[in-house]
């Protein structure tokens, strides 16, 4: 959130999105990526205070370029349950194949630094 104060001393609040994500696992059986994307964020968890002032930590489930390439190339096995059909240029990333990592986000610059990678190998 961005807080500003105008000349009348009134405080205004606006949203400043660092990143957005969606998690369709519960509804559709798998997360869907577009093959032209370089990365896709699926879910966020454990948001907390970071190690320094004006930082937060967050765990992110995501698909990176490599995961999207696998999904769109040879593909993953189709999930047992899905709803609807994939659109042109879309592919499934089933639960368990997304990558998971913890990032430290600097709130003043909106830059994120990888702190820990939890991806199962």
Write a concise keyword list for the protein shown above.
121 residues; mainly beta; four-stranded antiparallel β-sheet; 10% helix
Outline the structure in words.
The protein is mostly beta strands. Helix content is 10%, strand content 43%. It has two helices and eight strands; from the N terminus they run E-E-H-E-E-E-H-E-E-E. The protein has helices spanning 25-28, 65-72, and strands spanning 2-5, 11-14, 30-34, 40-49, 55-63, 90-94, 99-106, 111-117. Strands 4-5-7-8 form a four-stranded antiparallel β-sheet. A hairpin with a 4-residue loop joins strand 7 (99-106) and strand 8 (111-117). The longest helix has 8 residues, at 65-72. The radius of gyration is 18 Å and the shape is elongated. The termini are far apart.
Low-pLDDT regions: none
Helix content: under 10%
Give the radius of gyration.
18 Å
Succession of helices and strands: EEHEEEHEEE
Summarize the structure.
This protein is mainly β and 121 residues long. It contains 2 helices and 8 strands; from the N terminus they run E-E-H-E-E-E-H-E-E-E. The longest helix has 8 residues, at 65-72.
Task: Please write out the topology.
Blueprint lengths: L1 E4 L5 E4 L10 H4 L1 E5 L5 E10 L5 E9 L1 H8 L17 E5 L4 E8 L4 E7 L4
Antiparallel strand pairs: 1-2, 3-6, 4-5, 5-7, 7-8
């Amino acid at each position: 959130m961005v807080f500003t104060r105008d000349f009348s001393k009134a405080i205004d609040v606006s949203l400043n999105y660092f990143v957005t994500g969606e998690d369709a696992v519960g509804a559709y059986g798998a997360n869907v990526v577009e093959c032209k994307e370089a990365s896709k964020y699926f879910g966020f968890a454990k948001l907390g205070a970071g190690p320094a002032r004006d930082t937060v930590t967050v765990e992110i489930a995501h698909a990176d370029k490599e995961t999207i390439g696998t999904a769109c190339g040879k593909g993953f096995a189709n999930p047992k349950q899905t709803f609807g059909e994939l659109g042109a240029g879309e592919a499934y990333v089933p639960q368990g194949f997304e990558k998971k990592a913890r990032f430290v986000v600097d709130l003043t610059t909106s830059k994120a630094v990888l702190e820990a990678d939890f991806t199962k190998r």
